[in-house]
Design goal:
single chain; 88 residues; alpha+beta; two-stranded antiparallel ribbon; 2 helices; 7 strands; globular
Length: 88
Amino acid sequence: MVTFVVESASDSLCGELTRWLLEPKHGVFVGNVNAMVREKLWDKIQNAKTSAIMIFSSDSEQGYSLKMTGEPKRCVVDIEGVELIKIQ
């Protein structure tokens, strides 16, 4: 399972993401893709020079991991192996 939250994404980027994922709300994309597809979509988001967060299933203590790109209003903080969100 993967979730992308993209701020001010272009129409072409949204179109690319909706080929693989559902968009329940503008800028929020959810789906179940393999790791290769997930990383390729993440590369496209990073190349688009937009702020975004990716939340995906992993074998961590919490059961998921986070990645961020751009300059979002929140950041990920790792405290003793637990990833938390800090509002800047």
